[in-house]
Amino acid sequence: AALADSCPPVRAAACRGLGGLAAKAAPTGEIVGKVVARLSDTSPLVRAAALDAMACMGEDVAPHTDRIKEHFADPSPLVRASSFKAMAAAGAKGGCYAPDVCRCIYDPAPSVRDAAMATLAEMGERGASFADEVATMIHAEEESDKLAALRALAKMGDSAKPLLTQIEVAKDDWSEEVRQAAEAAISALTMAAIAE
């Protein structure tokens, strides 16, 4: 009943609640279907909450990747950012959309760019194949873009190792946080090379 409430925050809370339950136990097809239905909600708050819930449902959302992708172009930055997490949760089927996620690293909204880079880092080899594109954001003007790029590259393993020289440049950034993120990325990538 709460999913159909007239108040958007109540519908959003219901979606988040179902996502929380799904994180603890495998969701039923009926629950997934009810959350997917909220992707058509008029409220961006509810659409984002539905996508966040889907991100907790793992590969049970794989049959709905086309619906998730529709929200890569949602008018709301909150919804666009949430759509990437849901797509990453879809496992291998979601990974097929890595090129679409990569295009979003150039979105006008910083939160969307940052979420797209973080998602690519979570999409395994398919996401990591876009390490070169993510590395271009090390030279962005926005501090958040630089941080998101460095944090994503740190998780991209072999695909990011050839980019160590570019990452090294960020150690001279004006931002202490960016300099620390560059050090952490270099450390993560060199430790991965030693472990091999």
Outline of the structure:
With 196 residues, the protein is mainly α. It has helices at 8-24, 29-37, 44-55, 65-70, 77-89, 92-95, 98-103, 110-122, 124-128, 131-136, 143-154, 164-169, 176-195.
Please describe what this structure looks like.
The protein contains 13 helices and no strands. The chain is an all-alpha fold and 196 residues long. Helix 1 (8-24) runs parallel beside helix 3 (44-55), helix 8 (110-122) runs parallel beside helix 11 and helix 11 runs parallel beside helix 13 (176-195). The protein is elongated. The mean pLDDT is 92.
Extended strand count = 0
Largest sheet entry: none
Helix content: 55-70%
Number of helices: 13
Unreliable spans: none
Distance between the termini: 53 Å
Strand content: under 5%
Question: What letter string, H or E per element, gives the SSE order?
Answer: HHHHHHHHHHHHH
Shape: elongated
The secondary structure category is mainly alpha
Rounded mean pLDDT score: 92
Rounded to an integer, what's the Rg over CA atoms? 18 Å
